[in-house]
Amino acid sequence: MMRLALAGARAIVDMSYARHFLDFQGSAIPRAMQKLVVTRLSPNFREAVTLRRDCPVPLPGDGDLLVRNRFVGINASDINYSAGRYDPSVKIPFDVGFEGVGEVVALGLSASAKYSVGQAVAYMAPGSFAEYTVVPARMAIPVPSVKPEYLTLLVSGTTAYISLKELGGLSEGRKVLVTAAAGGTGQFAVQLAKKAKCHVIGTCSSDEKAAFLKSLGCDRPINYNAEQVGAILQQEYPRGVDVVYESVGGAMFDVAVKALAIKGRLIVIGFVSGYQTPTGLSPVKAETLPATLLKKSASIQGFFLNHYLPEYQAAMDHLLKMYAGGELVCEVDLGHLSAEGRFIGLESVFRAVDYMYTRKNTGKIVVELPHSVNSKL
Known about the structure:
- There is one protein chain.
- The protein is α/β, with parallel strands linked by helices and 377 residues long.
- 27% of the residues lie in helices and 28% in strands.
- Strands 1, 2, 7, 9, 10, 11, 12, 19 and 20 form a nine-stranded mixed beta sheet that branches. Strands 15-14-13-16-17-18 form a six-stranded parallel beta sheet, sandwiched between helices.
- α11 (349-357) links the parallel β19 and β20 (364-368).
- The protein is globular and about 65 Å long.
């Protein structure tokens, strides 16, 4: 027997009937759905992932929610996941996608104590690149409405907030360098550093992105396609920078290490320049690293969000309050400026990943999953 709560009522639904459809509030949950599945391990997302159109809609367990996804987030690490780098023991096929925002359409009996059908929720959990995702209720976050801005906070916002809070040692007057500053996480690192009264430098790839960074309060945007980052840092910041929020890797990592001030800190939250390679890495001048760090009493520390999950809920609560109070810009890129237009439907996830790796996005890349024609939610 599968226990489900539908339309706010606690009901016991026999498994054989539930597999056909569950009907409530004038909306039918279909028997089948579309989702993206990794069918081959590869950092090439198009080669690794298959859009399957006739997958059974999953059923929530006692403590679960069934969420109809309305917006899903694109992350640079989607291709690390599809390459099997996060868990080498994983066996294909497996679901992909880290985060989503949508409505609860069914839920288990225990989950109904805190949630109800029709409620808007955001979540960070595997398998979001699907029309429906089962989410443990303990991992769901109630949000006021189904808006893509809430999705920007789930991975990108919390990564910036927790890493800078735990590792950054931010204080007034400190000089902070944010690489890929106009991207999904970079936009938050810039704003949070400014709120700590730091002087913020941000790298980006276009004058349009530099203007966006200025609008966030960035003191010195650097368009690396028009200016040489290393030369600018040496000329304008001869005593170095105190904190680096680094997500690019490769040559940019080397520039950032060289630019560190005495007792400077470099936080590695990614190295996106290498993700599309067979190894997932981009070359760095590691042979000089020990001497460089020693001479400056500097440090480098990695940050992986999954290792800081005890701090996650408090971070989300704080960021949601900031956004609600108008203190935080949550820039969303839905693909309006891409060659083929907005990212709508699961099939456009492939385009959205390509778009990210051509460095065209400003803010968090989000894909919209439109309402089913049968749905009134």
